[in-house]
Amino acid sequence: MNLSDLLKSLPFYTLSYSSDPEILSLENDHRQVREGALFICIKGYTFDGHTVAQEAVNKGARAILAEQAVEVEGAPVIMVADTKKAMAILADFYYGSPTTGMQLVGITGTNGKTTTSHLLTEIYKEAGEKTGLIGTMYMKIGEEVIDTKNTTPESLTLQKTFKKMRDKGVSAAVMEVSSHSLVEGRVWGCDYDIAVFTNLTQDHLDYHHTMEEYRRAKGLLFAQLGNTYSADKPKFAVLNEDEEASAIYKRETAAHIVTYGIDNRAMFQATDIVLTSAGTEFLLHYPDGHRKVKTKLAGKFNVYNVLAALAAACTAGIDLNTAIRAIERMEGVAGRFELVSNDEGIAVIVDYAHTPDSLVNVLKTVQPLTAGRVLTVVGCGGDRDRTKRPLMAKAACEYATDAIFTSDNPRSEDPAAILKDMEAGVVGEEYKVIPDRREAIFYAIEQAQSGDAVVIAGKGHETYQVIGKQVLDFDDRAVAKEALSSRKKEAN
């Protein structure tokens, strides 16, 4: 595509001089620039792409898109008011608006996005669709797994990915949509058919500052569903009727509303819930009747995730029996209430719970499943919301019998300072502090007896630990297995 054709998608810009090179790729990372690229200068939190515009040209960029003056020789400079907005527009145009050719579901909320997205993906597969998945753990095109750095990639990466999905025959894509991505415009250009809201609890206040701003950020997904109606491509907002924010989102979207819940009457509602260590059973009430649903996923919080997935699936036109069959078959999601098998009689559970609410949910689920103690290993990430640290500690002390505070991903912060922030929330309570995460996990498993439960919270599926600038190999599940093996050897 020539530059002049590409720029037809932008209504307002200035061009430094007349030139019409062929554009072979779009890039916003100067390290990825190759011959024929249009390099887009993005001003980030720690790096400004404008500072490497000439370097991009030297590497083969045939044009530069910028929002501030850059000194460049050898390539035209396109000036726009906002390169992030222009990048989303150009990416959508360059890759042929790929999301218009598939059914796209966006899922937002504090907790439950990953589990709900995996549940819905399995339902689509059961219905015979080829699927795409974008989320916290990875991106998937069919069964191909692609690593990702953010829950929701920026717009250029998203459109590239959707183009690959479309080329490989993907008919339905499901993606987690973070509050950061909504505020920063990473999902501009995504043509969502269905938007799902899970819940809203405290998280990311280092970024959003207040819960009101956090709630407003999530609401952008529903507001961006559009303001028109089409019988050929209807838009739906699937909302949790038990969440206060849903009442606001109903007013902020023009889309058709579909509701789910437990405590309040909803279009898809669960009653007669039975929770066991083997999974969950409930009676599903839906617009055409009611029927029993069984799932291997444990806990009331997973009932909400199942309801959200079923509501979205039915909204997408998938037969309910097909959807329930997929739900009942699914084993679980890595790092989400994942059991570490052992013959010690100890329930060892690894979970991604890294917010106060998600930790409470996990511990409440564990309590009735064990007759013994509940030992909890938990920490808080560095360079993240400090205000939730004392709340995490409080949740651990209140809902576990033994709270063990340790490091999560301290990043650039002093692990001891993070632990002090946690301790501020539990003055006078009993707990143990073991800064080294490996030692903390070993200690918890060594202390546990048959009939007890050990919950290792915060990192879930992650296979690394970030300390300073180092990214070290670390998997809670692997460390737990080592600790169980060591315990067994000592006993013999």
Helix content: 25-40%
**Rg, Å, rounded:** 24 Å
Q: In one word, what is the shape?
A: globular
Largest sheet: 11 strands, mixed
Please give the number of β-strands. Answer: 24
Give the rounded overall mean pLDDT.
95
Strand content: 15-25%
So how many helices? 16
**Would you identify the regions where 5 or more consecutive residues have pLDDT less than 50?**
none
Give me the secondary-structure category.
alpha/beta
What strand order characterises the main sheet? 9-8-7-10-6-11-12-13-14-15-16
Distance between the termini: 70 Å
Structural account:
This protein is an alpha/beta fold. 33% of the residues lie in helices and 22% in strands. It has helices spanning 3-6, 53-58, 83-94, 113-126, 155-167, 179-183, 205-208, 211-223, 245-252, 300-315, 320-329, 356-366, 389-399, 415-423, 437-447, 476-491, and strands spanning 14-15, 25-27, 37-40, 63-66, 77-79, 103-108, 131-134, 139-141, 144-146, 172-176, 194-197, 236-240, 256-261, 268-276, 279-286, 289-295, 338-340, 347-351, 374-378, 402-405, 432-433, 453-457, 464-467, 470-473. Helix 3 packs parallel to helix 5. The longest helix has 16 residues, at 300-315.
